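Troubleshooting: if your tokenizer reports a length mismatch, compare your output against this known-good record of 577 residues.
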Amino acid sequence: MQPITDLDAPGPRAYDANVARAMLQVFARRGVRMAFGIPGGLISSVFDALVDVPEIRLVMTRHEGMAAFCALGHSVATGTPALVLTTSGPGITNALTGVAAAFVEQIPLIFIGGEVSGNAASRAAMQDSSSNAVDSVAMMRTVTRWSSRVDNAAGAAGAAEQAIRMATGPRPGPVFLSLPIDVGTSRTRIAPVLVGEPDAPQAPDPAFCRDVARRLRRAKRPLIVAGNGARSAAKELRQLAEYAASPVTTTGHGKGVFPERHPLHLGVTGFGGHPSVRAYLAAGPDVVCIVGSRLGDMATGSWSLPLVGSEATFQIDRDPWLIGRTYPVTAGIVGDARTVLHAMLAGGSSGTPASGGPPPLREAAGIRYTAEDSVTSSDVPLKPGRVFAALQDAYPNAFWATDQGEHCGYAIHYLRIDEPEQFRTMMGFASMGSGIGLAIGARAAQKQRTVIGVCGDGGFAMHAGEVLTCVEHGIDVILVIINDGRWNMVNHGFSSVYGRAPQGMPSHVADLAGVARSFGAVGVRIERPEDLDRERLRALAGLGRPVVLDIRIDPSLALSVESRSAALKDCAVEVLP
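Known-good structure output:
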């Protein structure tokens, strides 16, 4: 940075401003372009200031939790954090689930919650969330990278700069700022803050990284396990797999990081997984390389799948505490997946660790599906395989955002995804409704790609009001509702583990297409194979309005019986009579 030698020279200037507006201008200057939230008295200064900061578009949702989920979708689509704006008290607690999902997923967002004025704090003011009341800062500290209160006007711009820096740092995630209304409405002199770029990530021990690649290449039965943390390294992952001729399995969370039509792709491991993966694991890999996966219960069948090599197991992750936590490893490499894989591939005249001729010949892998004939089935009720095959045929280039439930397993299993940013599911925290917000936020951020949110009737019932949000803001997302009139995964789980289900479980198949139409959206019921006509479905994407596809499927089917329910049964066996 050049020293300032002429105070009259052109450049950034200090200026007087309303604090809320000054903070928004900092965010806009750093590339923030969208805000999601619900207004209230204590956050009103920020909503008012948005009128004067046109660079930031505001979308008002029907629930604060959905505002956070939509912000996640925007961040996934653009790589830039969005704002989440709520009032104090219940506004903050309602948003907490979405913020926690961002924390687990390591996705940046900036949450600003209103707060009572300084002279009202700790005096039983309505929605007091100061340090002697609910204490929003302490509450949010457990699910954010940084949580702080803006106590005075002079520090507001610096707090906004720090929020951006923490949210988008080497380990991105959500941040929280509590803004008392008297601070937000005050005026102050704001000085410019020049922020340098963070240092580029460094790869540890390049020689060792190259040796791991060679070990994979020389192995008889190698295996690469790729998780959500490998998403930024999709190109390098493919290069490594092809260099070593190593089969690849991805977690459901990481679906899309390796092209599923590639002959080296075995399929997904764990929840929604494929029999081709289980068969390869049963025969036993000798060298395994795990890239960017937490190896949680959903990816590993509650840690029952043998994702280790008989000779060596290597694990790559940017979080040191994940190395060897779940499975024993021969060695761990701490670092960003893209940086480490690049180091593994570097060297030699061909740009690979060793240029000794073509890769070894191995039997082609490829994905095998459960009930493959269901993809062409004409049965009524519809089979999930037929539904997802028809949807993908109609929308081959769509971005898919999947909510949590049995339908998530179907989407993971039957959709064929070849791009890292074509499919996302928030499996880390597994919140119902997260897929709806993810789809809305992604579609609000980008108009060049069809966006499809896949949800169950249970999750849709929790957040149906967001269809009205889409209508009012012109967000023409397509919501695919897999409607079987029940909480399918929960029903099958109770039956599998306990042999019965509690009374009062949902059983009514509601007219969700009718609900959508009553909000002003397009609502279409799909019950028979002819309703899945490709041209009919394609036409819906060109209407410029939000669309809800109310798809009736066979409720007797459940992929989770083989994975999630089986894992829960193993965990519960000691407490069952």
